[in-house]
Design brief:
Elements (H helix, E strand, L loop, with lengths): L1 H9 L1 H19 L17 H13 L6 E6 L10 H9 L11 E2 L5 H7 L6 E6 L5 H6 L1 H7 L7 E4 L1 H35 L2 H26 L7 H30 L4 H28 L7 H21 L2 H9 L12 H22 L1 H16 L7 E2 L11 H12 L7 E7 L7 H12 L4 E9 L3 E8 L6 H11 L7 E6 L1 H35 L3 H26 L4 H4 L6 E2 H31 L4 H28 L7 H33 L36
Parallel strand pairs: 5-10
Antiparallel strand pairs: 1-3, 1-4, 2-3, 6-8, 6-9, 7-8
Helix pairs in contact: 1-11, 2-9, 2-13, 8-9, 8-23, 9-10, 9-12, 10-11, 10-12, 10-23, 11-12, 11-13, 11-19, 11-22, 14-23, 14-24, 15-20, 15-24, 18-19, 19-20, 19-22, 20-22, 20-24, 22-23, 22-24, 23-24
Amino acid sequence: MTRWSSFVVARPKLVLAATVLLVLLGGAWGSGVFDRLSLGGYTDPGSESAGVERLIEGTFGRLTPDLAVTYHARPGSTIDDLGPEVAAHLAQIDPGMLASTPLSYWSAPPQAKEFLRSTDGTEGLVVLSLSGDENTRIAAYHDLEPLLVIDGTDAEFSGFSAAANAFNEVSESDLLRAEAVSFPLLLLLLLVIFGGLVGAAVPLCVGGLAILGALGALRVISYFTEVSAFSVNIASLVGLGMSIDYGLFVVTRFREELRSGAHTDDAVRRTLATAGRTVGFSALLLVCGFVGMLVFPQAIVRSFAYGGMAAIGIAAVLSLSALPAALALLGPRINSLTWRPGVVERGEDRAHRFWGGVAARVMRRPVPIATAIVAGLLVLAAPLAGASLGDLDHTGLPATHPLRLAVDDLATDFPLANNGATLILQGSDGKAPPPAATAELFRATAAVDGVQRVVPVGATDTFVAIRAIFDNADRTTGAMATAAALRDLRPPDGTEKMLGGLNALTADGLDAMAARLPWMIGIMVAVTFVLMLLAFRSVVLPLKAIAMATLSLAASFGVLTWIFEDGHGAEFLGVTPGPLPATMVVLIIAVVFGLSTDYEIFLMSRMVEAHDKGASTEEAVRIGTAHTGRIVTAAAALLIVVTGAFTLSELTMMRFIGLGMIVALLIDATVIRMMLVPALVKLMGEANWWAPGFLARKAPTPGSPEDPKPTPQQQIPIQS
């Protein structure tokens, strides 16, 4: 870092211009990623149910419906009168978009008409199975919808393709609204925090550049693997948040060095040697943490990781190159354009005194304070014991959304029009099962609770396929229970059974998430321990950081479970209680764990620095908390604004993320970081700094950038 800081100081204009130019060019090229992003990625391609879908599609053609259209009879006429118009509109569809001939009430054989006519006889149903992969089938909805609208009659669209498009469209519009609300508030908060326009603008500019750079990185990744459209949303959120975090830390340290009397060049060197090193470790830690999300088979979850890693990497590079170069050029002008002279210095002095006083008071009574906080957090975490994971379904849309109404009407008016489940029966010798075994499976399937009817799909010389029609609408609690019962069904002797269909795909996806989640958490914990061990040269501090992050997550998810699954306050928030959405749970775990350890690094780096200079444990805690309390709480407040705007969304999953981040940040940045951590460090005393001999810290060389001289501003008085 010393050589790099010298290069930045010697050629700040070159570093700034080259970095910004590269990011702008990468962002311009990366804007083409939007044409390459996937709208799918929700299923586990390696699951049993996905294998059944491929087998059925390869043998009989795609049979799983992707789009359902309900037509209502016009006043004064019957549903049969719509037959010619429905046929004419279906004839307009490009045959290449269809996997098979559309199944329609008006053209279906007599035995199938009852499935496609409403219980009151006033509605008819058209079901379409589309060709192509999941992304192609979802994208086809925009072309098909206008072709299937008939003048003078109401048409309701439902099915997986329509639902995926509904979620994508609502989330996109809600994100634009959230950004329109959060950006002005961010600028206002940054003005208050930095006390001046120049200081406030610097982290915001870095955040904008980080988002542009992440687009270029995502486009590169898209040439090698499937990247979901949601990756851009994650890149925007994480890129802006981490850029502000790193900008706060670097700019605050630079100002501190200037106040100590250091020349601008020396201030930049010392800032990079201290805050820059911390930012580098933080970014490496967060990127490695997001790597844990790559263990999941669903492309949408892996795309969360791609977006997060790209944004964090670019934000860190900018914070260690363009930002210090800009500081070298600005020098003391970083404090310019303030509304009052001296507001910056007075604000930092007040923050130092306040947070130093908080740490001092906590350390006077560490046992009762730590006990009370841990007990309170465990109480908040208690509802987590009854939590369960679920998938996104139509109930996550606003109550008045057309698709949600269409799905509810379909379940009520067409009780037999569901995907149910597809069962494959094979002989153990690889041949088709004997007729007696097939008949036995028919009877056993029909006897399962929740199965309305069993119909044949087809047979080959290697397998037999049958379909079970359920009593309940697809992906509801009842349908998932029926699918689970069919999976547990014992096949006839000498045969093997496989289960497919939409409900089985959903169940397999959730099972894969639950099975891989411990691996993700294990990777994050291992990486955190190793990197913090190397950064702080202490065994105890990484273990404490992991424990604090775990406690923060448990309390946060306890609150989310109490609201979103148990239903307390759900009506006020306008959400339908149900299992926690698995994909969003994974995302929040990754982001909150990363932010928790990020704040821990900011806080502990100053404590370790003070202790290495000879301060006692108690004095190191007080100095570290005083110097970083304002940074950590300000960073959390800014992220609360960014993610809190998600609660304005009408989607349950967006409100889940927004509220989850608000709760987690409030708990972590205040109660845990500023109170519980100082209490625990005080209690553990010199044990905090223990490490094996080969990891023992070496004192910095006197006069080096790593050894800034203590100054009056760095001697934090205790506020009684």
